[in-house]
UniProtKB/TrEMBL annotation:
It comes from Streptomyces radiopugnans. Residues 42-102 form the HTH tetR-type domain. Pfam families: TetR_N. It comes from the Bacteria. Residues 1-41 are annotated as: Disordered. Residues 65-84 bind DNA. This is Transcriptional regulator, TetR family. Residues 7-41 have a biased composition (Low complexity). Keywords: DNA-binding. InterPro entries: Homeodomain-like_sf, HTH-type_TetR-like_transc_reg, HTH_TetR. One of its GO terms (molecular function) is DNA-binding transcription factor activity.
C-alpha cells in the first residue's frame, strides 16, 4: 500500500489527550514557542531523514530498507547506522522530526493570525482558529502526523517512539506560547496565559474531533467547519 505524505518542509498547514555520520541527536521536542531555535543537525543526518521520508511516501515502513535510504541520501549504510543505531532509531527520529515541523507550522499560523486580527481583543480566538485549520489540514494530508495526534498508528508507519501520548499536550502548549508571544494575553489580566492555555486546549480538542470525524464533502469543508466552530466556542468562552 502506498502512503502519500508531504515532507516536513511543506507549507501546508490535526483527540489531544493521545492528548546519527557518527553524531547522534534529535531536535529538542519541548521548545516553548514557534520562534525557538531548532537544534542544528549534521548534514548527513538531515539528508538521511529526508531520504527516509521520501521512502515512506513511496512504500510502507516495513518495506523501507536501510541500504536504500543510505544510497538515496548519498551515504554509506554504516553512516546511517552510526547516526541512528537501527531502523527503529531511524523511525523514531523521523517521527520526531515531522512532528516538530508540524508543531512549528501550527504555532506560527496561530501567532500570525493573532498578530493580524482586525480587533486585538479577538486575537486569541483568531489564533486558535488558525491553529485548528492547520491541524485539520495537516492531519488530512499526513498520516504520520495524524497518527501522532490520534494515537492510531498503522502498521505502514514507523513506530511512535517513547512518548506517543505527548503530541496533543505539546500542540496545546506550543500554540499557547505562540499566542502569548503575539500579545494575545494582554486583555486578560494576570490570568491571561492560563486563560489562553485553556482556550487552546478547548480549541484544539474541537479541531481534533474534526480529524477523527470529518465533514462530508471536500477536505476544505472540514477545515472551514473546524475554524468556524472553534471561533464560535472560544468567543463565548473568553467573553
Amino acid at each position: 500500500m502506498t502512503s502519500v505524505m508531504p515532507s516536513a518542509g511543506d507549507s501546508a498547514g490535526s483527540p489531544a489527550g493521545s492528548l546519527a555520520g557518527s553524531r547522534a541527536g534529535t531536535p529538542a521536542a519541548g521548545s516553548a514557542g514557534p520562534a525557538a531555535a531548532a537544534v542544528p543537525q549534521p548534514p548527513a543526518r538531515q539528508a538521511l531523514l529526508r531520504a527516509a521520508r521520501a521512502a515512506l511516501s513511496d512504500r510502507p515502513w516495513p518495506r523501507v530498507r536501510m541500504v536504500e535510504v543510505a544510497a538515496a541520501a548519498g551515504f554509506s549504510r554504516q553512516t546511517l547506522y552510526s547516526e541512528f543505531g537501527s531502523k527503529e532509531g531511524l523511525g523514531t527520529a523521523l517521527v520526531a522530526r515531522e512532528l516538530e515541523a508540524f508543531l512549528d507550522r501550527t504555532a506560527r499560523a496561530a501567532q500570525r493570525a493573532a498578530r493580524t486580527a482586525a480587533d486585538p481583543a479577538d486575537a486569541p480566538v483568531a489564533g486558535c482558529a488558525a491553529a485548528a485549520v492547520s491541524v485539520v489540514r495537516t492531519a488530512h494530508r499526513d498520516p504520520l502526523v495524524r497518527a501522532a495526534l490520534t494515537g492510531c498508528w498503522e502498521s505502514r508507519l514507523p513506530p511512535p517512539g517513547p512518548e506517543p501520548d505527548r503530541a496533543g499536550a505539546r500542540l496545546r502548549d506550543r500554540t499557547a506560547a505562540a499566542l502569548v508571544s503575539a500579545g494575545a494575553a494582554a486583555g486578560h489580566g494576570a490570568a491571561g496565559p492560563a486563560a489562553l492555555r485553556h482556550a487552546c486546549e478547548v480549541g484544539l480538542r474541537l479541531a481534533l474531533s474534526y480529524v477523527v470525524a470529518p465533514c462530508d464533502g471536500p477536505p476544505e469543508a472540514t477545515e472551514e467547519a473546524a475554524g468556524a466552530h472553534v471561533t464560535q466556542v472560544l468567543r463565548a468562552l473568553l467573553g
